Queue: 3 jobs
Job 1
Amino acid sequence: MADHMDLFVQDEELIGRQHNRFRQTWNALYTATSRGKRPEGMSIKQFVSGGLQFCEHLHLHHSIEEMHIFPVLAKKMPAFQKELELLTQHKQIHAGLEQFQAYLEACVNGERELRMSELKALMDCFGSVLWSHLEDEVEQLGAENMRKYWTPAEMKSMPM
C-alpha cells in the first residue's frame, strides 16, 4: 500500500518542481524589470532569449495539460472541467503571455528597443493570475486531493 501512496507523492513532487522552474524564471525576469536592469553579466540577447524560452515552455506545458492531462482529470475532478477555474486561468495567462512574447520578438527583430518598464507593465497584466494558477494547480494535483478522486491503479495509467 505504501508503494501506491508514493505514486501520489511522486506526481505531486514532479508538478511542484515544474512549477518552481516557472516561478524561478518569472522571478528573475520580474526582478530585472523592477530594477530596470538586466542581471549582471547577462547580455540583452540572453535576457530576451530567456524571456522567450519562458513563453515557449509555459505554452508547451499548458498545451500538454489541456490536450492530454486535463481531459483525463476532468472525468472526476470539477476543477479541470471546461470553463472552470484552471482552464479559465490558462486563457487569462495566455492573453498576457502572447503580448509579452510579441514584445520580446519585436525586440529581437529590431522593431522595438527593450525597455524594462514596458516589459514589467506587460508582466503585471498576467502575473497575479499566473501565480494563483501555479498555486491552485499544485493544490488540485496534490497527493491529498488526488486520493479523493483516484485509486492507485488509476494513477498508474494517467498521462503524467
Job 2
Amino acid sequence: MFWSVTNVGNWIFDHSLAINSLSLVSTLPVLQDATFVCSLAWILYRIWQIYQKPVDELVELLGLDIPPVPDVSLGGISPDSVLLYWKPIDNLSTSLKHAIQVNGIK
C-alpha cells in the first residue's frame, strides 16, 4: 500500500474517532490533574530540602562570596547624630558599600 498524505490523514481521522468513541479523551483532564499534583509535590519537596540545609552549606554549594562583617562600635549619641567607629576589612581589593539602618530606616 502506498502511503500518501491523504491516506495518512484518513488513518489519523479514523483512529481519532475510535479514541473519542472509547472515551479515552475524557481521562486526559484526570492525567493533567495528577501530573500537576505530582509536580507541585516535587517542587514543595525540593523547597523543603533547600530550607533544611544550613546557610553555610548553601553558600558553599552556590559559590557565593559573602564579605566579612566589619567590627562596628558606637562612639557617641547626640540628639541629632550618632558617632560610629569601625575597623575596615583586611582585603582592600574588594569594593563594598555599607548602609546603616536603625529600626529598618536608612
Job 3
Amino acid sequence: MFLILRSCTQSMDVAPRSAFLAAIVFPNERTATMGVINVVKTASQSMGPLITGLLVERNLFWVAFVMAGSLKASYDIGMLLLFAQHKPREEQTEDQQHAEENERRR
C-alpha cells in the first residue's frame, strides 16, 4: 500500500507544478515565475546536506528521514489543495478573466 501511495505522489513537483503554474500565471509572467521557483528550490535543496550533517553529529540521522518525508508529503498535499480549486484560463469565463487582470494590475 505504501508503494502505491509513494508512486501517486512521487514527482508531484515536476510536471504538474509547471502545468499548474502555466495555467494560472499570465503568459508574460511565466518565465519570471518559473525562474524564481527554480532558484528557491535549488537554494532549499542546498540546505539539506547541512541540516543532515548537523543531525548526524548528534546521532539523530533518523530525524532527517522523518523531516524529508514530512516536508515532501506536506508540499504535495499543499500543491493539491491549492490548485484543486483553480480552473485553467481556458475554462474561466470572460468576466472572471477580466476581474483577475484588473486585480493583478492594482
